[in-house]
Amino acid sequence: MSKVPNMPKSWREETKPHKFCPGCGHGLILKALGEAIDELGIQDRVVFGCDIGCSLLSWDFFNVDAVQTHHGRTTPVMTGIKRARPDRICIAYMGDGGGYAIGSGHLVNAAARNEKLTVILANNCNYGMTGGQMAPTSLPHMKTETTPYGRDPEVTGYPTQGPEMVAAITRESAYVARGTVANVRQLKNYIKKALQNQIDGTGFSFVEALSGCPTNWSTNAKDTWAFIEKGMTEYFKVGEIKDPAKKEA
Amino acid sequence: MTTSAYKMKEVDTKKALFTIFTGICKGCGLCMEKCPAKTLVWSKTLGVYGTPAVEPKDAEGCTGCGMCATVCPDCAILIERKK
């Protein structure tokens, strides 16, 4: 029994198995984040802030200082920590409900002020913790708990495209990207670049990660992958939307 | 440092030593769908939530690519390639 699982070093092993549902995308996003923290060697400087919703279950996920805030208020709390201690690396971790619904004002204004912090947002098309209600990111005609006949865009509008929204109001020095849990290596690279952007003090960095919610989508593993890789990426285009390094080249 | 006390099961295949930590495997099945050789099947051994864990069905199929370990949200799979 001397073998150990191949977890990122920044993970807190005694809290595993973690609290997320089987097949949840949060585990993969946090794995990518953990590997990025390991590779940059910043574990002792990271402050991790998590939002209300499923993302709060990550409060004891890492061996770093963590704070759990009110719904949607992770961005301002981390802004405050960053302003008080500019040497810390501040990561705000939230879901699409916290980032695009109740906390969209905070996210947009932090981006407009070009705060030097990193926001990582998990987009799973619904409110997972409360039972799968419609979120701003639910796809058109997607069935959720509160839209049993499918989301009607005429009544509830079209899904929020967060990275595009953030990219539109940020300065050239901001890093904005959208990754997916179907490509963990690419997602890790995006998160690494976003953290590097903060370490260099260049500007705001924002990564949205398309994530799965098998519990509330009521899908098996095959359908979960199909929904992430086909259904979601049709509407949410994966890729780097704003990269300060590319502008100079 | 913490000591690992997770329950585990080893399956020796031709190309690699496949270890499933049943103490953290939740049986979501994401790895089975992503396996390019389609060699993973439900195991008789149960995972942490009392649902079946996974294992390679025979010694031939596994190529040791490590895709299952990459897509596991819980880091429950360890692949050690043989030279």
In short:
Chain A has 249 residues and is of the alpha/beta class. Chain A has ten helices and nine strands.
What's the structural blueprint in terms of helices and strands?
The complex is a heterodimer of chains A (249) and B (83).
Chain A lengths: L24 H16 L5 E5 L14 E4 L5 H11 L4 E7 H7 L1 H9 L5 E6 L2 E2 L5 E2 L18 H4 L5 H8 L5 E6 L3 H16 L5 E6 L3 H4 L3 H15 L3 E4 L1 H5 L1
Parallel strand pairs in A: 1-2, 1-3, 3-4, 4-8, 7-8
Antiparallel strand pairs in A: 5-6, 7-9
Chain B lengths: L8 E4 L3 E5 L9 H5 L5 E7 L5 E5 L10 H5 L5 E5 L2
Antiparallel strand pairs in B: 1-2, 2-5, 3-4
Describe the protein's architecture and organization.
The complex is a heterodimer of chains A (249) and B (83). With 249 residues, chain A is α/β, with parallel strands linked by helices. Chain A has helices at residues 25-40, 74-84, 96-102, 104-112, 153-156, 162-169, 184-199, 214-217, 221-235, 244-248, and strands at residues 46-50, 65-68, 89-95, 118-123, 126-127, 133-134, 175-180, 205-210, 239-242. The longest helix of chain A is centred in the N-terminal third of the chain and has 16 residues, at 25-40. Chain B is mainly beta and 83 residues long. Chain B has a single domain (9-81), classed as 2-Layer Sandwich (Alpha-Beta Plaits). Helix content of chain B is 12%, strand content 31%. Chain B has helices at 30-34, 67-71, and strands at 9-12, 16-20, 40-46, 52-56, 77-81. In chain B, strand 1 (9-12) and strand 2 (16-20) form a beta hairpin. The longest helix of chain B has 5 residues, at 30-34. Chain A binds chain B through residues 1-8, 11, 13-14, 16-18, 20-28, 31, 184-185, 214, 220-222, 224-225, and chain B through 2, 4-6, 8, 19, 21, 23-24, 26-30, 32-34, 48-49, 51, 69-71, 73-76, 78.
